[in-house]
Amino acid sequence: MTGQLTEPAPTTTDPRGRRVPRLVVGGRDVTMAAAFVTLIAALVLVAALTADTFLTPTNITNLLKQMVTTGLLSFGMLVVILTGGIDLSVGSIVAFSGIVTAGLVSGLPIPVAMAVGVVSGIGFGLVNGALIARFELAPFVVTLAALTTIRGLAFVYSEVPIAPEDPGFFTLGSATLGPVPVSTLIMLAVFLVGGVFLTRTPPGRSIVAIGGNAETVRLAGINVRRHVVLAYTISGACAGLAGVVLASRVGIAQPSVGVAFELDAIAACVIGGASLAGGRGSVRATFGGVLVLVLINNLLNLYGVQSFWQQVLKGLIIIAVILVQRTNRVRS
Amino acid sequence: MTLELRGVRKDYGGVEVLHGVDLVGRPGEVLAVVGANGAGKSTLIKILSGAQSMSAGEMRMDGEAVEFRSPHDAHARGIRTVYQELSIVPGLSVTENLLMGNFPKRRGLIDWAAAHARAKELLESIGFGAIDPRTLAGRLSVARQQMVEIAKALVSEPRVLVLDEPSAVLAGSDLASLFALIRRLRERGVLVIYVSHRLAEVMELATSIVVVKDGRVIATTEPARTSESELIGLMAGRRLEQIYPDRRTEPGEVRLSVHGLTRRGEFEDVSFTLRAGEIVGLFGLVGSGRSELARCVFGAEPATSGQVKIAGGDVRFRAPSDAIAAGLALVTEDRKRTGLVGGMSVLDNIGLTTMYGMRRGPLIDAARRRERVEEMIDRLSIQPAHCASMRVVNLSGGNQQKAVLAKWLLAEPRVLILDEPTRGVDMSTRIAIYRMIDDLARDGLAVLLISSDLTEVLGATDRILVMNQGRVTGELRSDRTTEDEILAHAIGQAA
């Protein structure tokens, strides 16, 4: 995973003079990587020690599959957040792309139907980006409108869940390569390619720079609008893909699925230290954020905590993680 | 209030930038702190203002040891700092900015009449009566905003006032009111710590002068015992022969010509030409439309009418990218807002304009980019030398400015527009910038140097265009004109 977005080879020295890789981007002298790994290791350890079912193959596979949706959405969200924007429409896109794909399966070859699902996400992202960049509308408002519009469209397409009978529909979501689900590998590939995109390509660097200072970027001769559109399109594409994968895994597409998924994606970015003002964020740390969220969910499920309490706890944990980051940053 | 620093050290992540600074300031003194960029002035100010804590050493106020953990601690001890970067809230009135959180109330609600009256009284008492407290702060000129900033610091009647480059944006009567204010503060027994690059001011205002170099105080002196050139020599660590290079060159072919360019409400009917090898100055007071003109020529804002021609052919720049493709470069006036991406590395910043041209497949050719950027860092001697991976905001002001220049030079322009390239930049960096502009012009670049500094515009250019209220009111030859003549054109009173 390529992580660092603002500095090429960041290391820092710990109090004993050892070189430690640095995870929080933005040049701050914080050894957040260590903190992150510790947190995730602690979660895993607690889970393994207290829930017998945690380390079972079934649960691990489940975990790997569960992180796909949040993972894909979080990467797309990170790209948008880096520009200083936000994409609230991704949960609705998940529902739309899923239900459209499931609906088309009966008439079209499965790969084509799935491609249509992903393309629908790309289309919604393009429209979001175009409205935001061309008319200089607030990303929050545009994607909030998109959230309700696209959710409506999903219900217009089919009020009732669609469950395709062709077993080929389930392959994407359920196939495994050895012990690892194919969908997880796809998500990892998105993070890998995405990391390279954001750190090593001109459009990727432009997106990060736009969030830092859009006017400087414009005066440097870079088309800011085009890159903003690109960012929302990437987010739309990720959401479209997530929708298809989710429908395939569950085996049934529901127009009501994906409510509040955008919040998990935002949370993962923020836990990973991304700044909602733009220009600061890391692919690697966002992936860490996804792991933290998914582990918490899984743990609470294993404990049989009631789902409403799960929401409460998740909120508190997010605040705690961000507070820790904050104090670390201030201390440095 | 006697303020005393003893052996103050500061390190950032293992790199020491202040190596034991001693400093004494007494009530009623104006203590000027001068030094080259990177000398440690800004760090010193941050320690005084409580924005940063020192790593070692001690600070005493009236003999009592103090330790600041935050700006609030410094405020509580009567130390106020006015930074170069403005911190006023543009969307609030001057009154709100001044009284922030300290409003007179009537029955629990803010009494606006009383608040405005109090703000007015305050401004008048410090000689800034020309500012209307009801105006939105953002509507004031930068100079007036700076004055509001200073007034804000004085609301709590501090015993120590730290001013960081207060005069960088002030001119004429505004500057005179600042000087008068500082004299009045002296009489009241306030210790004023004054950081400035303008040595003439320092010589006029200061009661004592401290020269900082490489994180140390290398000299403490008084205006009566020193001279401007001695100070420059101390700061730069070398003898100063001449600030401005000799300009004796034959201009070549026309690189850029502008005909009747108009942007409604900003400037009107502007025509000029730039030739290869020529440095043309563009002088105008704040509000004369000089920066707006530059942005429009560069394609950043559309023109209402008029033409821009490059090497003979008509062009229409729809966006800066078109202008860059035609060989133009614009170093903007405000590096923080329009020159740099603060959160990114020096490498990313310097490589910004050129990264699309340095690709290998879909990726940036990282090795080539790093090599080119490091060449630039070396050529412009940006300090520290191995700063490519550092965040650009961690460079000192002068080095940030050099980084902006490096970004544009990497694009190998044929026409270079510089908008106030030496604003807020210390003397030794200035000299380096003048040398570089001269070298570039000798290599055939056409340079437009926009400046509100008369000495600079007179010393560093071949020809001077003067603007007043959006029009070019004069074109003068630098070797045959005077500051008075330029100024007369600039205020529209030339014969």
Automatic annotation (TrEMBL), chain A:
The keyword Coiled coil does not apply. It is a multi-pass membrane protein. It comes from the Bacteria. Keywords: Cell membrane, Membrane, Transmembrane, Transmembrane helix. It is found in: Cell membrane. The chain crosses the membrane at residues 30-51, 72-96, 108-130, 137-157, 177-198, 228-247, 259-278, 285-302, 308-324. The keyword Transmembrane applies. InterPro entries: ABC_transp_permease. One of its GO terms (cellular component) is plasma membrane. One of its GO terms (molecular function) is transmembrane transporter activity. This is Ribose ABC transporter permease.
TrEMBL record, chain B:
CDD domains: ABC_Carb_Monos_I (cd03216), ABC_Carb_Monos_II (cd03215). The keyword Cytoplasm does not apply. Residues 3-239, 238-494 form the ABC transporter domain. SMART domains: AAA. PROSITE patterns: ABC_TRANSPORTER_1, ABC_TRANSPORTER_2. Keywords: ATP-binding, Cell membrane, Membrane, Nucleotide-binding, Repeat, Sugar transport, Translocase, Transport. This is Ribose import ATP-binding protein RbsA 2. The gene is rbsA2_1.
